[in-house]
Amino acid sequence: MDSxxxxxxxxxxxxxxxPNLTFGHPVVKCLRTKIPxxxxxxxxxxxxxxxxxxxxxxxGVNRYTFHLEATNDIEALVRKIQxxxxxxxxxxxxxxxxxxxxxxxxxxxxxxxxxxxxxxGGQKFMQNMMPKIKFLRSQFPNVDIEVDGGVSHINIGCxxxxxxxxxxxxxxxxxxxxxxxxxxxxxxxxxxxx
Length: 194
Ligand SMILES: O=C(CO)[C@H](O)[C@H](O)COP(=O)(O)O
Prior knowledge:
The chain is an alpha/beta fold. It has a single domain, classed as Aldolase class I (TIM Barrel). The chain has 8 helices and 7 strands. The longest helix is centred in the C-terminal third of the chain and has 15 residues, at about 180-194. The protein is globular, with a radius of gyration of 16 Å. It binds ribulose-5-phosphate (5RP). The site of ribulose-5-phosphate has 19 residues, from β2 and α7. Ribulose-5-phosphate binds near residues 11, 43 and 150.
């Protein structure tokens, strides 16, 4: 769920930054040929995110979201992503204080607040991340704030009330018998909360 267009959120994991492995730019490129009109967000749960900027841009990614914890030169990485023609997202893991990201928010299009430890779907939503969102929203009324991890129809409302405007839902949709109904349920709870 996104304030603007819906994005397809692609979880890229390298088995190093997180203890799980998914896929890389060749698969994204293949997806792009199958789904030419979708907006793609690559959530790069990888070490050395600077390495994959151009390959992901070439594969058709629209927003490149990297982790603050994965790189030392954030400003150079942001420039590289923008020069490759993509929007910039910057994410923080649950144990990273929100203060660490503040100085970079104005450089980015989106800040991602993880509500699980990155690496696996199906984990429990961490409600105690909501103050990070509230604080960010109070300081940056216009930036996109994304929440990812354990979001369901039960907690999507508190994400919206905290000030998030972009939601990633994995298991809440993929694990539902009736997926359109699950998406509608999420949207309904979201609309009730805002
Ligand atoms: O980034 C992720 C895990 O690192 C997933 O996007 C996230 O966990 C979403 O899955 P779920 O909604 O099942 O928690």
